[in-house]
UniProtKB/TrEMBL annotation:
<dbReference type="InterPro" id="IPR036388">
    <property type="entry name" value="WH-like_DNA-bd_sf"/>
</dbReference>
<protein>
    <recommendedName>
        <fullName>DNA-binding transcriptional regulator, MarR family</fullName>
    </recommendedName>
</protein>
<dbReference type="InterPro" id="IPR036390">
    <property type="entry name" value="WH_DNA-bd_sf"/>
</dbReference>
Length: 168
């Protein structure tokens, strides 16, 4: 194994791309993980609750925020879903009675209903199965390192893209 250096080449004269060429590209690994998570969680939640991962994501987001405005979630979820898809998920949960509109907020702020809170807790318990599967053969520290490394890489790319756009 090679030692960590701050430069792009080491004493062996190889670049990181050359030294790491035997590994699956990170984009391929990230895509497989994303697709696998969605398939696993969709199956888990469809079987038990008649819902999908995207419903869980909205419920969790509402649970975690003090002022969970739907349009804020629509913007944050845009990486994965169209605005129409995200609003459909909210409509599904509103129709099911798991979400409501906070009194005095008009259409803006969502809240978990009592039934939604029970459903959220049941889904959270089921989601523990996902964690058990994903972390098999891993430690929590491995997970923390993986998320940190991918976040740093994404931040580096965001910065480089911004700099490139600025230079144009």
């Amino acid at each position: 194994m090679w030692a960590m250096h701050t430069g792009t080449e080491q004493s062996d004269g190889q670049t990181p791309a050359q030294r790491l060429a035997h590994l699956v590209p990170i984009g391929v690994a990230a895509k497989r993980l994303q697709d696998g998570l969605t398939a696993f969680v969709d199956g888990l939640f469809e079987e038990r609750f008649g819902l999908r991962r995207r419903h869980w994501q909205l419920l969790r987001w509402v649970h975690e925020h003090d002022e969970p405005a739907l349009e804020t979630f629509v913007a944050e979820a845009a990486l994965f879903y169209t605005a129409e898809e995200t609003r459909k998920v909210a409509d599904d949960l509103l129709t099911r009675g798991w979400l409501g509109r906070r009194a005095g907020s008009g259409e803006a702020v969502l809240e978990l209903t009592a039934e939604g809170e029970r459903g959220f807790r049941a889904m959270a318990a089921a989601q523990d199965t996902t964690w058990q599967v994903v972390l098999q053969g891993q430690t929590e520290q491995d997970y923390v390192h993986a998320v940190h490394a991918m976040t740093v890489m994404a931040d580096n790319l965001d910065r480089a893209l911004t700099e490139r756009e600025t230079l144009r």
